[in-house]
Design brief:
- GO terms for molecular function: alcohol dehydrogenase (NAD+) activity; zinc ion binding.
- Keywords: Metal-binding, Oxidoreductase, Zinc.
- This is alcohol dehydrogenase.
- The protein contains eleven helices and 18 strands.
- The protein has about 350 residues and is an alpha/beta fold.
- The protein has two domains: about 200 residues, Medium-chain alcohol dehydrogenases, catalytic domain (Quinone Oxidoreductase, Chain A, domain 1); about 140 residues, 3-Layer(aba) Sandwich (Rossmann fold).
- Strands 3, 5, 6, 9, 10, 17 and 18 form a seven-stranded mixed beta sheet that branches. A six-stranded parallel beta sheet has the order 13-12-11-14-15-16, sandwiched between helices.
- The longest helix is centred in the middle third of the chain and has 13 residues.
């Protein structure tokens, strides 16, 4: 099969080619619950750029060369002898974790914390290819209204944004505020989820005018340009108290400090983007009673819930399509801020 393969890390992201488009061995079924999916769409994520940079080397044991791509959807191509519930030809979206289902975290539904798991595109070969090896427990059959190429990024970007927005929606009340930092690939999904699940006023902060326009279309009630005065702008909107919830889809640069500064006392700061560090004096944590919440992907059930919103038209992905052979173009466009929404590779 054809695949876009990562052969070496590039810490400064200066190479003309991050991956090579080449022939590789087809995946094979070796266990009863294995499933091979013919890829209909593979999302291109900023995490992929972090993988190219080598940031994930301290977290996972990956030997190069390998295939990135952890946001995948397509059609069932082959199944192991123990597989039930899906058949060859079914259109499916893949939860990003492949797990056995036996450990306590799995039994509680928290597959992202499973003791024994594979994460295609992170610690195993992923979907920047024509075919993907996954498992039955990871598959959700798609309704006829949703095509694989249109929903693939929901499996990480959408699911992570949904998980954070769902957490926030559970305590946000009418008359309160939620601030979203970053209206890009994850942020534009999170805005729509917030609009669908809660009645708080949604304030979106971004530095790009195009992203702010997208935020308005996605349901933002207020948009604020990140021009150095965004903290004052948000505090002005909220009567000086700040937002009861802040969801930070950037997580680097000055976004963290500003995000915490606009979180109201007793409020919640949800960190989704990464690359930076949280540095806050303990006395400030005590006196403000702010809560900092990390967010890692989401559960299988949450991906089912997100597909239900998408099926009803309450959440819509804004995507830019590339051929699999154009993976380097997609990665460079993402790196240089030329994608507003999500990029999808199509074999």
């Amino acid at each position: 099969m054809k695949a876009a393969v990562l052969h070496e890390f590039d810490e400064k992201l200066t190479a003309k080619e991050f991956v090579k488009f080449e022939d590789v061995t087809d995946p094979k079924i070796s266990r009863p619950m294995d499933v091979i999916v013919r890829i209909g769409g593979a999302g291109v994520c900023r995490t992929d750029l972090h993988i190219v940079e080598g940031i994930w080397r301290s977290k996972v044991d990956v030997k190069l060369p390998y295939i990135m791509g952890h946001e995948n959807a397509g059609w069932v191509e082959a199944i192991g002898p123990g597989v039930e519930g899906v058949k060859v030809g079914d259109s499916v979206i893949c939860h990003p974790l492949v797990t056995s289902g036996h450990c306590l975290a799995c039994r509680r539904g928290n597959d992202m914390h499973a003791l024994d798991s594979a994460f295609p595109g992170i610690n195993a070969n992923g979907g920047y290819a024509q075919y993907l090896l996954t498992g039955q427990r990871s598959l959700i059959k798609l309704p006829k209204s949703l095509a694989p190429k249109d929903v693939a990024p929901y499996t990480d970007a959408g699911l992570t944004a949904y998980r954070a927005a769902k957490k926030a929606s559970r305590h946000l009340l009418p008359g309160e505020y939620v601030a979203v930092i970053g209206a890009g690939g994850l942020g534009h999904i999170g805005i729509q989820v917030l609009a669908a699940l809660c009645a708080a006023e949604i304030v979106v902060i971004d530095r790009a005018d195009q992203s702010l326009e997208l935020a308005k279309k996605c349901g933002a009630h207020h948009v604020v340009k990140a021009d150095g005065n965004e903290v004052e702008a948000v505090l002005g909107l909220t009567g000086g108290r700040g937002a009861e919830a802040v969801i930070d889809f950037v997580g680097e640069g000055d976004a963290i400090a500003k995000g915490l500064s606009i979180t109201a006392n007793g409020g919640y700061y949800y960190i989704v983007g990464y690359g930076g560090k949280i540095d806050i004096p303990t006395i400030d944590m005590i006196t403000s009673e702010k809560t900092i919440v990390g967010n890692l992907v989401g559960t299988y059930a949450e991906l089912v819930e997100l597909m239900a919103l998408a099926d009803r038209g309450l959440v819509e992905l804004h995507t830019k399509e590339y051929r699999l052979s154009q993976a380097n173009d997609a990665l460079h466009d993402l790196h240089h801020g030329r994608i507003h929404g999500r990029a999808v590779l199509i074999p």
